Batch of 4 targets.
Target 1
Amino acid sequence: MLPLGRAHLWLKLTRSQGIARRYFVVNGFDGALTMLGLIMGFRVSGSSDLAMVLNACLGAAIALGVSGVSSAYVSEAAERRKALNELEEAMAKDLGGSAHGHAARWVPLLIALVNGAAPLFISLFILSPLWLAQAGIILPWPPLLAALGCAFFAVFLLGVFLGRVSGQHWLHSGLQTLLIALITAGLVSLLG
């Protein structure tokens, strides 16, 4: 069986698809709103030094990614180990070499990667206009404004994804999450 097939089997066996989905959305949302807050903060403060903005935002994105991977791995590994121990006790059998044993070892890593990758990649997407501007590429909007647009778009897309998962209309769900981003931006703008 191919690695992706095995990963799908382990997620299904442990009923962890929903957990991975939730971690993707929750931490993706954290990444998007963190970048939105940072960029709004720089915009409100009048800072236009792209290198400083990029370094601060990239530092936060890396920290969110590392935090996501490590926190999810430690907690999920403990939960999977506990579930495997309970199953082994119920069956009075060592399941270390079984599909359940493999799942107990690998699912925490898979979930941790989702948990860390979501805020990191969403943050990198939001920062892309800043990199383009720093590389000398002329954008139709000022770089911080373009990055804010990317942040709003990312949050909207997370809402669309949630709408698809829940069976809610995608536009309603997307607008709901976009409203949260707009409130966040409004609160940060009060600092100025």
Note: Helices lie at 3-13, 17-45, 50-91, 99-134, 143-166, 170-189.
Target 2
Amino acid sequence: MNFVSDVSGTPLARTHHAFTSIVKRNFELQHEDSGRSTRHIELTLPEGIHYQEGDHLGVLPQNPSELTERVLSRFNLNGQDYVNLTGDSGSAAHLPTGKPVKLEELLSNHVEFQEPATRSQIRALVTHTVCPPHVKELEDLLLDNTYKQEILNKRITILDLLEKYLACEIPFERFLALLPPLKARYYSISSSPLHNEGEASITVSVVRGEALSGNGEYKGIASNYLAERSQGDKIACFINTPQSNFQLPKQTGKPIIMIGPGTGIAPFRGFIQSRRALKEKGETLGTAHLYFGCRNPEHDFLYQEELVQAEQEGLVTLHTAYSRCPGQEKHMSRTD
């Protein structure tokens, strides 16, 4: 591994033929009293990029700075330095070997840090640990029940273990090679190209909560990355069409039933936008029923005004179910 002075691109973006979209709007859908966060994010797509209702937007996220700083601190590295990973360093195919890359960019865009440690990762830590008691503790984690209870159930990562066992002297490049590649995350597109051509929206449930390990807060990589994007920010992404043929019927007169609790409403928002555009063109629409569930309509009825308006326009019949209304049993109703 050599420190150099240039930067390279990400193989993940090339693999997915990713393009750059621009954030147009990003706002909260949940009421502040819900204690949760769901973001509506509208993106401007590059010219020539097309999608259809029911498609997914694949997002290439970045690891947050607080996570990459933990790695840099553990290995006593400077994120502004450049490295050139060579093929003989044991680097995996998803790493930019033979090309200069800034450490900060390498850790942000190429590897996953929050997956539970694998047995092979733990064995590698054992090999490079010089303290016998710590070797014994790490070896004990490989036992079936212990591994399940202490690693999988608590989602303990290889980084967590490295921070706990300072006697482990694993080289940085070996640590990198043990990490899985940073994966794309998929979100149902919550808009129709017939509504705003050249734009797409996604509905993102932001994952945050107490870490299962009991140590601090767990934050989902992609959802928090997206939640923090502002107007004008760039996001690397791509269009993915599911093989399940999850689309509106080509015969517009066919009746449809849509079931989408929570953020499951996302693709059906696009379906309804499409139905509105088709109706305006004079197409005959079949009946459509939408079943939507949430905890409390005062807190997390996503797109409530839009859906009620769509029902008033005759685009859909709305059925709702609420699970946590104070003083009320779980129930389902039809709006009139």
Note: The chain has three domains: 14-61+183-240, 62-178, 256-334.
Target 3
Amino acid sequence: MCGIVAIWGEEAEEEQLLAMLKQIVHRGPDAHGLFTGKNGGLGHQRLSIMDPPGGNQPLYNEDRSRCIVANGEIYNFPELRQRLAPNHTFVSSSDSEAILHLYDEEGHQSAPQLDGMFAFAIAEKDQIFAARDAIGIKPLYYSEDQGRFWLASELKSLAGQVDNIKEFPPGSYYHSATGFQTFYEVPDIMPGNQPAPYYLKRIRKTLEQSVEKRLMSDVPLGAFLSGGLDSSLIVALARRSLGKPLHTFSVGLKDSEDLQAARRLSQYLDTIHHEYILSIEEVMEKLPEIIYHLESFDRDLVRSAIPCYFTSRLAAQEVKVILTGEGADELFAGYDYYKDIDDPELVLHQELRRSVASLHNINLQRVDRLTMAHSLEGRVPFLDLEMIKLAQEVPAEFKLPNDPPMEKWILRQAFEDLLPADILWRKKQQFDEGSGTVDLLDQALKGVMNEKEASERQAAYPEANLRDPEECFYHKLFMQVFERPEPILQNVARWAERQEGIS
């Protein structure tokens, strides 16, 4: 897990690349590297996960005609390496090197063959090739400014250099000779009509395999554990696959529901559990830093980013890789607003597909930014491409039965023997609710932004569509923590917009 930058189109100055890297040192404090040539340059900040001593980047192919900087993990790299080894000499056991040699063989068609989360750039003579993973788990932004093509893992790297910044589309690649091409979209397939047991078996097997492949690591690995269904399933499957205790991490107000449920499950599964008690004072002290790393003022995103920030900080004291339960709600109808959809078979099915496709700049942005703020790699087993495809096949009636309206019913049923009943059937709570962050913020934010100040800010920034005094306060902090906030503002997504127009 790392941070990457690139400037292409004319000779790049090292000082400019280093200035961009300086903004994302937190993504990779273990090492940094540069490539510069007459057509541009690449930069890399490394968080050492695979092959810590030998995987520094940029990595070069055998004749040094191409080099790569990459961020992410390629879970099928052992198979790719075996396939490529007869024709290529590998100088490391880094999964990123497999991307480079695959590109040597397959060119543009290399990106669709990668199973993992990734954002990378390959320099070759006077051309550059870049790609981002199918769902957008790993971030990437670009700009076509000043006659050059710019890339960076975070907006803050580009905001000091260019004015017009755009998100690199998930499931896409770019080549300087041909432009952007899409290689993946969330499958748009109609649900099947098989009985529930058929889907139960497939869901179980697919998630087991997804967790198993994400245990790949040469450094310590752990898992977030809120005590809710999603993180509990991931921890239980990881614990079973590893065959030994793993580190788990929770935060919340003293005696919050999340902390109590996480303690119970940790004892049940025999994990090495760590928890941290949140306080109003510390949350308010760290809020500007949280917003800076999040690169958003969206109220819902900020609220969920707060516990994510503190859990990541706690986890980083013990591990460098963390498993999370992100994505299950979008695949199996976990949010309350799904229950208000009148036509579950058609409208709910399409809304779930849209929800998955919109994760890249909302919840996945939160997970990436707040884990990487503490140099921690986050992995999301639910968002394996096989699980995404399977979830589109499962009828809505099994995800959210109308009577009673139990969210993620079929996911619970698939693992009925794995978790205690009170955890398995615990009602969905968002991260900020279960941890007590909502109550904490209600107390902490009293008086920080009155109605008059909020109205003035709403009038001054109509394009921001600020919803209430709380979001106005986050927006105020956002404008303060960035020297040049305007280019970043162009890319702030809104969680609430995903619900608009749904009936």
Note: The chain is about 40% helix and 20% strand.
Target 4
Amino acid sequence: MKIAPEDGPDLVLARARKIAKEHLRAKRPFVWNATNIADFARAPVVRLCRDYGANVRIVYLETTWDETLRRNAGRSRVVPTSVIERMLSKLEPPTVRDATRVDWVLAERRPNVR
């Protein structure tokens, strides 16, 4: 949509919801790819899907701290480490109550990695 992050998250969300409703009405499977790190962000999407009678599967992908920083460094628009740390402090991983199915793809744990 070529919208700067600070200019239109509401526009992007409204468009995504519209597309999701089209898929839900047609009973077509689709993926909602988002960094919904907290329940308050996930819940409205899950509720929308459930309102249409859809089964909801959440796939929670976790990386190590080192891998997160490596991927971030390779982005065209690097996210400041302080922002990533703030997001990490607010992280609420999904639970089995959040969806019909929840898959956790967890990073390999090492003693000195956050």
Note: Strands lie at 57-61, 101-105.
